[in-house]
Amino acid sequence: MESIIVKGGTRLSGSVKIEGSKNAVLPVMTASLLAEKGVSTLNNVPLLSDVDNLSNLLKYLGADVNRSDGSVRVDATGKLDCNAPFDLVSKMRASMLVMGPMLARYGYCNVAMPGGCAIGSRPVEQHIKGLEKMGVTFRTVDGSFEGTADGRLQGAKVYLDFPSVGATQNLIMAASLAEGTTHLENVAREPEIEDLANYINAMGGNVKGAGTGHITIEGVESLQGTEHTVIPDRIEAGTFMIAGAITKSEIVLENVMTDHLTALISKLEETGVRIVPEDGKNVRVIPPEQLKAIQVKTMPHPGFPTDMQSQMMALLTTIDGVSIITETIFENRFMHVEEFSNMGADIDLQENHAIIKGVKKLQGGRVKATDLRAAAALILAGLAADGYTVVTELKHLDRGYVDFHKKLEKLGADIERTSDDTAQRSAVTQK
Ligand SMILES: CC(=O)N[C@H]1[C@@H](OP(=O)(O)OP(=O)(O)OC[C@H]2O[C@@H](n3ccc(=O)[nH]c3=O)[C@H](O)[C@@H]2O)O[C@H](CO)[C@@H](O)[C@@H]1O
Ligand SMILES: C=C(OP(=O)(O)O)C(=O)O
Question: Is the minimum distance from the CB of 161 to ligand 1 under 6 angstroms?
């Protein structure tokens, strides 16, 4: 089994380039299915297993997908098959996003229940409710959602009970080819929604208000493939900010949109870390020797992102004093607490609050990545721990981070990725 072995205590220096956003590229790739004419070229695409898995799903559905040098070319002009099977869909949450385009183009879809990180029950009733308002009838068949519409989807007024990112994306895509106007209320305001709207507008669509809580979509007759450059990954950027903070190292991040990271930057500044914009899209992370304990609550954007919760927890376990993290988005996103505790962290879980008493030093050991962001968070903890930390279950990491260990190694970390059992065993017994 592959693992990452990290020896704590090394200071980092230098710069690291941030990739295109996983959570932006996945909906954009599914939106490319909306184009009956023309080919889309998507740039700044990260080399992630989620992108591979989604490419395989799009190919299965009949699109022609080609990857080269950070770009993906999607040709969806042929007749598509609207049946997305469990073995492809279950690999990743975002595969649910083929539903909107399929229904918009063909008035039919049959999509298995999606997968993704096991961080909560992750129901999809907001997607279904909105699509029903546009004229789709659903039934569940053997664990799949089969949706049928009589002719073209119809513009509608949809209020989301919660600003779900995926539901907002599915509904924007469905509405972009519907007849008439769709008003979406209480929608997600994440930067990835704006990126999707920009792409659809460049394809000839008419989406207004993305980035606010109310989006209006005028349906158009057809959309055509175009070129689009995916926004930088705010979560990867945030993860490297914490790498600097937890190792007390000044590092530079390249290709960052600080406007997308307001909540994280503000909370890091409360701890005492300075995040200083430099030329272009670079930022410098400047941590002091002594950081302060803080309170953090995850919220929909522009609140503190749940996808940064475990990395922030890694940092707070090392800060003297009592910090509190409250998770409000996913009911089961504290699985990493047990792993941090195995490294000597002092964390008391009370419902959706984690009460963290900073310890002088975390201890290296063998820990298991419980989800994508927890994988990165445990590696960050390992950078600050005494001795060696061995992090297993790297399939989670590969969903969302390109060459994470190589980037940290380039910054000076003592880190390797190996499938050598002996190296892993001797690392946990060494000090
Ligand atoms: C591929 C992608 O972009 N994934 C991101 C997306 O996931 P995803 O789009 O799945 O997240 P949602 O915003 O939909 O989910 C947030 C919360 O709403 C609930 N919910 C959602 C839909 C629904 O119909 N009913 C319902 O109850 C979910 O169970 C969860 O508790 O946004 C999450 C919240 O920022 C991020 O953590 C994920 O990284
Ligand atoms: C939870 C995440 O992804 P997904 O929604 O694809 O499981 C994430 O990116 O942290």
Answer: no
Give yes or no on whether 3-19+232-429 and 22-229 have one common fold: yes
Q: Is 117 a catalytic residue?
A: yes
Annotated binding site for UDP-N-acetyl-alpha-D-glucosamine: 93, 122-126, 307, 329
The CA 112 to ligand 2 mean position distance, Å, reads 18
Task: Starting from the CA of residue 90, give the closest ligand.
Answer: 2
Type of residue numbered 312 = M
- Cα of 372 vs centre of ligand 2, distance in Å, is 7
**What number of other Cβ atoms are within 10 A of residue 280's Cβ?**
9
- pTM (two decimals): 0.97
What CA–CA distances, in Å, run from 316 to 201, 245, 334, 368?
41, 10, 14, 19
Distance CA 387, CA 75 (A): 50
- ipTM exceeds 0.85: yes
Specify the CATH superfamily of domain 3-19+232-429. Answer: Enolpyruvate transferase domain (3.65.10.10)
Q: Tens digit of pLDDT for each residue in 87-113?
A: 898 888 898 999 999 999 999 999 987
190-222 pLDDT tens trace: 999 999 999 999 999 999 999 999 999 999 999
Q: Which fold has domain 22-229?
A: UDP-n-acetylglucosamine1-carboxyvinyl-transferase; Chain (3.65.10)
Domain ranges within the chain, ordered by starting residue: 3-19+232-429, 22-229
φ/ψ (deg, to 5) at 69: 45, 55
